[in-house]
Amino acid sequence: MPLTLMLIWDYDTPTGFAVSYHSRTADPMLEYTCTDRILALLAGHGIVSTFACVGKAAEPGDLPLHNPAQIRQIHAAGHEIASHSHSHELLPALSQAELRQTLRDSKAALEDCLGAPVVGFVPPWNRPFHHPRRLAFSGKDWRAGGGRWRHSVSSLCAALAETGYHWVRVHYRPVWQQLGRKLGRRDLRPLALGQYHGVYTLRLSYCGYDQTLTDWLATLADPGRDTAVVLYAHPHAIEHDNSQHWHHLTRFAQWSSDQRDALQIRFTTPSAWLAGQQQP
Ligand SMILES: [Zn+2]
């Protein structure tokens, strides 16, 4: 049975850099130059992935705020394009109307750019973390909402269903997993698929592609089981000194080529994978 890997890139661009503490001083062209390197590497290894793009970058206009040509190039190379909101908003701080606006605006900008449907969504900073139906409660989301929970994973799905999306990448930790982390327990879990209001939730497994990941993936290969894993990283972070660095990415790409047959590794996109699943 295959080990299915879905690699999702958060394509923040200078619109995202402007609101991110870590990237505020980054070279405004960094996302684009790094994406060129990544596309060449992925093509060389036959890896298909997904780029979750800030809608603003898809609008016509000048670099570095806009780069519709690169988004079309990514799509033409066979990768899925998803929305990463319109202007990299912090969703738990938005009103219901503002949330729907950024979902609509980004989808329209990306679809106009590509001339193709965009049905996936990746929330900036992976938030909301709040998901009471799975016993995940987020103090950070409560504070961002000005002392209340404005959104949860399931209410985000309701807004996504209204605005025409089909899947969303989610990240939440039930209370016992938050406790386990505090006790130093390993926090690696394969994909769990959920569905709220008709929108599929794909739970994130890992950030980056370092040795911790490949050691774990090797233990997941099980001839009796079909296992899927969702990974994420940022194109510009291949220049960061962390699990997303270029040297980890190139090693991971080579490892996956070497292990492809032994571990039955296949790379796919959320839309292609969901199309192949039995609909619950
Ligand atoms: Zn982002």
What is the 3D form? globular
Count of β-strands: 10
Distance between the amino and carboxyl termini: 20 Å
- Can you tell me the CATH superfamily? Glycoside hydrolase/deacetylase
CATH fold-level label: TIM Barrel
Overall average residue pLDDT = 94
CATH class: Alpha Beta
Structural class: alpha/beta
Descriptive labels:
TIM Barrel, 11 helices, 280 residues, 16% strand, single chain, binds zinc ion, 10 strands
Q: Which helices and strands appear, and what pairs or packs with what?
A:
Layout: E1 3-11, H1 13-17, H2 30-45, E2 50-53, H3 55-58, H4 68-76, E3 80-83, H5 96-114, E4 120-121, H6 139-144, H7 153-162, E5 167-170, H8 175-182, E6 193-196, E7 199-203, E8 206-207, H9 211-220, E9 227-233, H10 246-259, E10 265-267, H11 270-276
Parallel strand pairs: 1-2, 1-9, 1-10, 2-3, 4-5, 5-7, 8-9
Antiparallel strand pairs: 6-7
